[in-house]
Design brief:
Order of helices and strands of chain A: EHHEHEEHH
Helix content of chain A: 40-55%
Structural class of chain A: alpha+beta
Number of helices of chain A: 5
Number of strands of chain A: 4
Largest sheet of chain A: 4 strands, antiparallel
Oligomer: homodimer
Chain lengths: 109, 109
DNA sequence: TCAATCGTTGGATGCTCGTCAAACAATTGG
DNA sequence: CCAATTGTTTGACGAGCATCCAACGATTGA
């Protein structure tokens, strides 16, 4: 069975206010900082400071990020592979992700 | 009586997640797009698409933006003069405001 | 001095959101 | 085939939030 992708907005439908709202949460902003360097698979986030959260809570945050157009999720068997929509976001809002990455680095060294 | 400034966080205390949360609202993001070109005085925002909002609602949004470190408010008599904290934000999160400005221009031309 | 102006504050209301728990669906290893 | 794994969905609950309204305080023009 080939892999599938969970539904996500088209690049031109990504709205700035929804992106900002999605990232204006401590948990989701930390997820962004994880995704900003290479893809990770979802929910198994041991050792990332999210151990205290229930798996359904993490799943909820992933959905918010995906529906805002921030991330892209590929379904492969039992696992979900999540990655940033780097190209799409850079095309739609040039410089935004770079500024966020620098901001995250400068805040929690 | 000399002008006063309403309380606001120090530059080094501005948190990225609070900025993103403050801007993750349609009304406040529109306020940002107003402030992004020159200062404006508060609450009297006729003809900016915010006529439908009660003055206390606008006052609330202004407070959120100020407490997040996005704007700075000077009290002069009965009026409040609000402006972006351009320098502080550029120093703290380089490129962020520029990216947001371009994003706002590209979205609602 | 007095009334009009500008904005804030407090309460009230309804909606959204973050979180957990339990049940569920899908997949896979034995 | 069965049990363990992986993540989603649904419901519930409390907190936060956006909004309006009324009342208030401060300021200023007449």
């Amino acid at each position: 069975m080939p892999d599938e992708w969970l539904p996500q907005p088209a690049t031109e439908d990504i709205q700035l206010v929804r992106v900002l709202h999605a990232l204006g949460d401590p948990v989701r902003l930390q997820l962004l900082s994880v995704y900003l360097r290479g893809q990770e698979f979802a929910c198994d986030l041991s050792g990332l400071g999210l151990d205290h959260l229930h798996k359904s809570t993490v799943s909820h945050h992933m959905k918010v990020l995906r529906e805002a157009g921030v991330t892209s999720t590929r379904v492969s068997g039992r696992n979900r592979f999540v990655q940033l929509r780097r190209g799409d976001l850079d095309r739609r809002f040039p410089g935004l992700l770079d500024a966020l990455l620098r901001g995250l680095e400068g805040e929690a060294p």
